[in-house]
Structure formats: structure tokens, C-alpha cells
Amino acid sequence: EHCRPAAGVPVLTASQTPKPFSTPEDFEKEAVRHIETTLARSLYNCDEGAAYAGTALAFRDRLVLDWNKTQQTQTFADQKRVYYLSLEFLMGRALDNAMLNVEQKDVAAKGLSDLGFRMEDIISQEHDAALGNGGLGRLAACFLDSLASLNYPAWGYGLRYRYGIFKQEIVDGYQVEVPDYWLDFNPWEFQRHDINVDVQFYGSINHWQDDEGKQHVSWEGGEIVKAVAFDVPIPGYKTPTCNNLRLWGSKAASGEFDFQKFNSGEYESSVADQQRAETISAVLYPNDNLERGKELRLKQQYFWCAASLYDIVRRFKKTKRAWKDFPNQVAIQLNDTHPTLAIPELQRILVDIEGLEWDDAWSIVSKTFGYTNHTVLPEALEKWSVPLMQHLLPRHLQIIYEINFQFLQFVERNFPKERDILGRVSIIEESQPKMVRMAYLALIGSHKVNGVAELHSDLIKTTIFKDFVKIFGPDKFTNVTNGITPRRWLHQANPRLSELIASKLGGFGFLKDLTLLSKLEEFVDDKEFRKEFREIKYANKVRLAKHIQEHNEVTVNPAALFDIQVKRMHEYKRQQLNIFGVIHRYLEIKKMSAEDRKKLAPRVSIFGGKAAPGYWMAKTIIHLINQVGKVVNNDKDVGDLLKVIFLEDYNVSKAEIICPASDISEHISTAGTEASGTSNMKFVLNGGLIIGTCDGANIEITREIGEQNIFLFGNLAEDVEDLRHAHLYEKYELDPQLSAVFDSISSGTFGDKESFSALLNGIIEHGDYYLVSDDFASYVDTQTLIDESFKNTEEWTTKMITSVARMGFFSSDRCIDEYAEAIWNVEPLVPKSDGE
Ligand code: GPQ
């Protein structure tokens, strides 16, 4: 089984490898070797792309030794592992992160400079790995970083999309989607040619009896698609742990196209099977907080769940343990309901293939899974039509019906007097067609269900899962407030601030224990520190201003107040409230005397974010923002007092430039709609303040940093339902200031007024579901407070520093420790060095 080198043959192992590059020359040697041999390029012909490749490969060499060692340690340690199943991993770039984790970025920068390159330019050669939509996918990426940095034995499982989230171009103020082909050169993945899983679809069910009279079920016929493993190393910060992210790509089971058909002249149909198979992992669905029930999406979900579970079960079987030990060895976390099919799939493996009794199997299944819910928005809760599932996954549908039957019997026994409860909690919705409610299946098949911020975790217990709290008791439900990795979102994105903090705290320990930031409060009155802190903020704004100059061809004043809202475009996130506020400001400025204008703090309103291609209203909002920008930015009379910028193609690597550059960022969702939010944490950690509603993690941020350091406004979640009801059944008046804004839009100030009529009518006539009008006055007033506060530089500086000092709680490390303790029951495991 094992390969044994002959005596005297040196074996390269992680612990024998010195720090990757002790000198810049060491690094250069390795990078040049890769450029000349791996890439077969002459140094005379070495451009930035080749320099990036050489650098990445040089660091990768080092990474894979730790990776091998970690995997070997995990295999032999034989302790419980975590599997994080997520359809999205929004990783961004890998090189910078890899260099910083081994503390070798400076050495490499010097080496690159010797070769005639600037580190920044080389880093920006890398294509973002954009296998996600927004917060949910980026959370998965932060979790992988924390799992590795904290030495948890953990794997991620996902899909290897050939196309990640589309690239956004803005053409004449409109969003245009361009495909994101990111795999032309990707040094961070390794295809495992030996790891393939056959995944079955369609077919029929056969019930039969063996010679001993035992009943069996088999799933036969249909179509087979091959899942091919691609592994991505996930290094931890300052630790030898390097975990694995396994992404599945789809291939035709036969591997090749049909030669028979090809030879008989049917070229087109001969490649059709192959193409159909490869379509499964071709593209990421670009919807955020929305489900559309498409067959291909269901295929993606099953393909990935089946391949991952096959892999996990195979690994478990190698331990030769009894099946009842499975939940002691394996914890599987479901990132939203997307991987819920893993539940009936594991039940199918145990019952149909391994021959366990139903109840024994179910006891194992329901101890293995944990389910994280990320939204209460009804349009985002997954439901699959029963006929579709019957067609694609006939055996799974049977199993789901059996799970439901047993569950409903249990409910009936325990709540005999409640007539309506069965219909309400049934996994099957009795609609036309019938639908499988995936959130209920995920909940019933898991031992813990968690929300992602306190308010959200409370809300799921009183709204969508209310009945289930009664059925299972409150202990099944828990909260794990989201977090972010301070490595990427402070150290990498804002190296100067990280350095400054380290100089005050006596080292970079805070990057592993973010609560150490609290010591910064001791320096809040330190004049020199305050000055440096402000200088860093200013420099980060200059960097963003440069980006804006290059991409938007608008000159913005870095001394102005930078007001930023970047996130997916969505009505519930209320970018429309923001842009209406900007228009209001513009109209006010136009009315002001020269004297009054002098008193005003200049502002740059910055937006960024993608709209789902089919989300017409979100696209309208993008269009309005760009139209307003066109008018305002060209109004000489307004000058520097107001600029409006839409940043094209917001993604992870752009967020790394944007988050450190805010004075204010906007997190202004209608109360009760944003489960948590995570960019709110990124902005505050980088010394920006927040204007926000009492929603998601804003509430906990306020508790931590103090309400004097955040600008809260708007109605509370508890009042939203009544307000909506009142809008529908009573006459309501539009807020007068908002009305003036609408008049200016309707008079054509920002171009063709017809373009925006549906947006305005939704508020004026159709109930204003997101309460834009209700919150407008308090939003505008709060922005005025911000103007005043910003002009008082000393007051503002104190708020920034105090807030940063109090952000320790929001590290994804804290979050992962909570999952490990309360949900997974797993312990860290540090890779052994060789010879031990
Ligand atoms: N989230 Cl359901 C997404 O990014 N996409 C989704 O489809 C759903 C949720 C977000 C959610 O809106 C944010 O409030 C959270 O901070 C984030 O998930 C991570 O939990």
C-alpha cells in the first residue's frame, strides 16, 4: 500500500522544510524555477501574469507539504471531523492569504521587486474564486479560514462551477452580465484523478425479497453522471494545519463521447450526453435570497450531496467501526437548505445499501446533521415540486414520505387535540402541485438548528419554525452569531492598521484572539496614535479614490465623508432608501445659500453590488443610482459637496479595498429582514462607523461598541407587521420629504421618468412593503446627525477607535468555537511534525 523510498533517498516533509523562504533570493530562485520549468517560459518573456504564476507555485509547494501532513494526521488520529456542506464558497484570491499565513509576504515582495515587479500588481493578476453570491458564500469562506487557523479537522464540500458569479458591467447606467470563466489558470486546485463517484438520476424503484425473506429496495436504471474531485488547500494562519476543500466537477460517466454514434455520423448527438453531464457543474445560480425551483439546480444539489456523502461514508468505513459510531466520527453542517438531500441520501445508503433497520439508520442520521438557517424571507425558503422529485429522485421521494409519515405520527401522538398542526408541519405542502418543504426536512433530520444572529435566531422560533419549537422543545434551536476572519478583513485588507494595532498591543496576537483588541481602549487618548489612525483611514480613502478615478472617471475628494453601501442589490436591503436620501440631499444643496453650503460636510455616496439577472426591480435601482450620479457629478454648482458613485462588479477583492475606506457604511434593511449581515462587521473592524436599522447583527454590534458609536434609525422589527397591515387596509400618507424626492424623479430630473414608475408606485400605491416611507424621516435626520458628528474630528476619532477596540466578539474564530462546542462536539488537532 505505501510507497517506501529506498535508503538514502531524501523525503521532503513539512517539518523538515525550513520557513519557506529565509531570504528574498530563496524565494526568487523558486519562483524563477517555476517560471522557467513548470511554465516553460523564458525570463526575458516574463510578464506580470508569469510572475504571479511563479509566485503562486512557489508558495503552493510549501503549502502542499503541510496539507499532506495535515491529512495524514487527521486520518491516523481517528477523531471526529466536521464536514461543511455549502453550495457556495466565495473565496476571493488565495495568494495574498497564503503569503501572510506563513509570514512571508515581505520576503516575497523584496524578491519580486528585485525581479522588477510590484507586489500589488502581482497579487491583482489572480482571478477571484467567486463561487458564491454574497454573504452566505463569503461566510463559508471565512469559516474555512477559521477552521484551519484553529486546527479543527474539517473539510468543505462544494461544487466546482466552471463559471462563478457573473461579472457585472455597467453600460449606459444598466447592469450587463458577462460570464466569469475563472479556470484558465488556477494553481490552487488539484484534480484527484483517482477519486470519482458515480451519481445516479431518474430510473425506477424495485422492491424484492431475498432467499431469507428479507425485503429490499433497489433503485435501478436511469442515468449515471461521474463526480470528479478537485481539492483546494485551505491554510490556517501561523499553523501547519492545512485543511481540504473538495469541489466536485461533473463528467459523463463513460468519460468520452459516444464513438458508436460518432462513427455512424451522428456527431452532434454523440457529444450531447457528455455536454448534459458537464452542464451540472457548469454555472453557479446567481440568485441571492431567492429560490426559483429549476430542475438543473435540484440536479446540482443531489449530485453534490451524493458525491460528498459517498466520500464521507467511504472514509468512515475504512475505520472499521460499527455504524452506531458514525455520529461520533462525523459532523455534517448544512449551510442553508441547499444540501438537505444529504439527509434522505444518508438514510438511503444506510437502509438500502448497508442493510440497517430504518429506525437504527434514522437515529444515526438525525444525530449527524446540523442545519444553519440564513433567512426568514418566504421567497428564499426552498420548496421542490413533488412531481419533479418523483421524476429525478424517485427513491429519495419515497424516503422523504416515510420520514414525514413517522414524524407526523409522532406529532399526532403528542398533540392529539390540535387538528391543524399536522398540515402546518408536514414536510409535504398540500398545494397544486404538492411541494417538499426543504427547511422542515432539514430541521427534522438535524439535531441542532441555528440562526446567524440573536434577533434572527429569535425570529425563526416565533415565525417559520414556531410549531417545531413546541414539538421538539426549545433546546433544538440555538444561535451562533456570524463572524468574519480578521486575517483577510483586517490584516490583509488593511495592513497599515494591522501594523499600528500590533505596535500598540505588542504583536499580532489579536489576529488569533480578536478580543485582545480591547486593550486599544487604553490608547484612545494617545495623540500620536489618534493621528496615525486617522492618517491610515485617509490613506485608505485615497486608495479608493484612485480606484474611482480609474474606473468611474470621477474625481472625488478623499477628505469628504465616504458613505458606502456595498452588498447584493435587494429591495429588503433598501439601496432605494439610500439613493432617495441622496436625491433629498441634492435637492437641499440646490436650495442652499452659499453661506450654508460652506457649513456642509462634503460627501461621496458610494454604491456597489450585483442584481440577480432576473430581478428587474433591483436592476431598476442600479439604473436610478447611475442616473443620479450622472446628474449630480456633472452639476458644477454642487461640486465637491456631493458625488455619487456606482462601483462596477463588486466582489471579494474589491471589498478588500472598499471596507477600509469608509467613514460611514449603510446597513439599512427593513427591521427583521437581514438575518445577520457580515459586511457591517468588516467596516467597523476597519474604523468605519455605521448607519443602520435595528436588524441582524447590527443589534449585537451596538451592544458591544456602545450606542453612542453607531447611528441607528427606523422602525423596530416588532412593529413591521402592523405597519404593513396598516398600509394595506388604511389610507397612508407618503413622507413629505420623500414626496419631494419622488416629484423630482417624476419630473424627469434623472432621465426618463417612466423607467422608475414601478419603483415609486410600489411605495406610493402598493403598500410600501419594505417601509421606505415610514423610515425616511428618521433616516434623513440621522444622516444630518452624521454630518455634524463627522465635522467634529476629535469626536469622530474617539468613536472609530473605541469601536475597533470593541469588535473582538465578531471574529469567525469565536463563531467556529461555538459551533464546535455546541453543535459538532469536535476538538482541535494539530498536525504532528515528522518523527513523532
Ligand atoms: N444570505 Cl438565504 C445570503 O447571502 N444568501 C442567501 O440566499 C440567504 C442568506 C445571507 C443573509 O442575507 C445575511 O444576512 C447573512 O449575514 C449571510 O447570509 C450569512 O449568514
What does this structure look like?
This protein is 47% helix and 16% strand. It has 836 residues and is α/β, with parallel strands linked by helices. It folds into 3 domains: 1-75 and 94-126, no CATH class; 78-93 and 128-482, Glycogen Phosphorylase B (Rossmann fold, 3-Layer(aba) Sandwich), CATH 3.40.50.2000; 494-806, Glycogen Phosphorylase B (Rossmann fold). It has a 9-stranded mixed sheet with strand order 7-10-11-4-1-12-13-17-18, with helices on both faces. A 6-stranded parallel sheet has the order 21-20-19-22-23-24, sandwiched between helices. It is globular, with a radius of gyration of 28 Å. The mean pLDDT is 96. Bound molecules: ligand GPQ. Ligand GPQ binds at residues 133-136, 139, 288-289, 336, 374-375, 380, 452, 482, 674-678, 696.
